[in-house]
Structures are given as structure tokens and as C-alpha cells.
Amino acid sequence: MPVTLDDQLVVAISSRALFDFEEENRLFDAENPQAYMQLQLDRLDTPARPGVAFSLIRKLLAFNADGKQRVEVVMLSRNDPVSGMRVFNSTQAANIPLQRGVFTQGGAPFRYLRPLGAHLFLSANDKDVKEALQLGYPAAHVFTDSKRASDSNPNEVRIAFDGDAVLFSDEAELVYQREGLAAFQRHESDNVGRPLPEGPFKPLLVALHRLQQAGSANMRIRTALVTARSAPAHKRAIRTLMEWNIQVDEAMFLGGLEKGPFLREFEPDFFFDDQTGHVESAARHVPAGHVSSGISNSNP
Questions:
Q1: Measured distance CA(143)–CA(289) in Å, rounded
Q2: Which of 51, 55, 159, 249 has its C-alpha lying 20 to 30 A from 146's C-alpha?
Q3: pLDDT, tens digit (0-9, with 9 covering 90-100), for 241-254
Q4: Is the full-model pTM beyond 0.90?
């Protein structure tokens, strides 16, 4: 029978999200990629430094440490196949057990998310992320200048999510942006018993919950909801998670306070938000990515 990735958490990631290829990327020219390719070839045996999502990937793969395959990470890159050799050499040097990769030499890689059955796509290419989200896959544009993850929690994968337009739909955010805070609070109070529609990252949260339930002696998952909501609008968010039969470990209802300092204390391996201002605030403290979803990212 053919190999299958069924029953595994599947993460697709670009080379610039996993490794620090920013110096090499400054040489890249889509019309004439030879200088970039030559530099990668010259550095074939020089391991790349860890990138923004390195900690997240390393910890997720630790769920396989007992020999049971629970997580699959696949390199999905616009790199050429020769440059891909350096990527795999770098994963080997870093003891990151990647087996699979797709290198498209400038072509759009997101189309391979479907045969992979990916639960998450992380990329430094904003256009690829937008296309992936339109296809219905959880995806985030990795801010490559983000602060790297702390080493304080070696046995926990820590992931933080914004609520509206990320875990949940932007239904409530639409009300807020069109009618203001008072109307938003009334809307959420009036609909407190009706679960919020799911957002683009609900499938990832479900997959993480399933991974946690599967259990591992080596690693656990700790999740946080970090939202600008405040009481009484917090009730609908919590009731929605209860309806989904999913618990988060921490919930921060910040009422518009800057998220970055709170995320610094939580120390996530990655944070997802739909608003670039929140991502920029977070990136000063933790690895962060932009989810181009909902009204905040609609074209004017």
C-alpha cells in the first residue's frame, strides 16, 4: 500500500521560515536567479542559522521521538532543487528529521498543500500565504525579523492565537469596524449563546488538540487565546471553544492593550494574528506571523 500521512499533523514550511536565509535572499532576482543559486551552492556544506519557526518545528517533531509518527513536516519552497540540497543539509546538521520536500524554482508551491493534506503552511512569501488561505488552508506570513523563541520551555510547544478572523470568523469584527465598540459589545451579548463561525485556523487548533490527546512522554502542547476582546464579549469566545470541545490553556482578554508584552511573558514558539499592527508588536518579543484573513485584510 502507498505511504499515507493520514492521522498525522502535517506542517508545510518554506525554507526562509525554517532557516535564516535573509542574506541570501537579498541577492535573489526572479529574472536572473543565478547569483542566488551560486551562493547557495557555495554554501552547500555551511549549515544555515535557525529561522523564526525553527523552535516550533523542532518541538513538534519531538512528538515522534518514541518512534510513533505523529507529526510530518514537509519543506515547501520556491527554491531550486540545488538550493534545496543546502536546506536538507541544514536540517541534518540541526538534527531536524525532515524527509520530504517540494522545490519549485520560483513556481507557486501552495498548490501542493492539497495532496499533502496540510494543517498549516508557514512561509515568508505573503502572496503564497494569501493563496493558501483562499484555498482553505491555515497559513501565515512569517515575519522574518521576529525575535526568536525562548529556550525556557523545552518540553512544551507553545502556540498563541488571536480570536476573531483567526480561530473564529470575522463576523464580530465586521460589526466592530462598521459600527464601533458599543455595537460590538451589544452584538456579542445578544449572540452569546450562538457559537461563532469557525475561522481559518480552527482546523489547526483541532489538529493540535488531537495531537495532545494522542499523548507523548516527551512533549506537550500549551495554547493561548490572545484577543483584544474584553468582558462581556469574552463569554461568546469561551462558549464557542466549549461548543467545539476544545480547551485552551490560557486566555487573555486584553481590551485593546498591546499584545506584545503579554506574549513576551507567555513565551510562545509562534503567534498568529490577522492584524499587522498586532503582529509587529508581537514580533518584537516572540516569533509571529500574519494571517491575511477577514475584513482587516480586505482590499479597499
A1: 6
A2: 249
A3: 999 999 999 999 99
A4: yes
pLDDT at 165: 95
Bridge partners for 12 per DSSP: 74, 121
162, 164, 273, 274: the active-site residue: 162
Residue 211 to residues 65, 218, 250, 273, Cα–Cα distance (Å): 14, 13, 18, 22
Q: How many CB atoms lie within 10 A of CB 182?
A: 9
Cα 74 from Cα 133, distance rounded (Å): 18
Q: Exposed, middle or buried by CB within 10 Å (0-12, 13-18, 19+), for 105?
A: middle
Average pLDDT, the chain: 91
Q: Vertex 226, ends 220 and 228: CA angle to 5°?
A: 170
Q: Which pLDDT value is given to residue 178?
A: 87
Closest to 126 (Cα-Cα) out of 115, 113, 110, 114: 110
Q: Which residues contact 131 (CB under 8 A, 6 or more apart)?
A: 108, 110
**162 catalytic residue (yes or no):** yes
**28 pLDDT band (50/70/90 cuts)?**
low
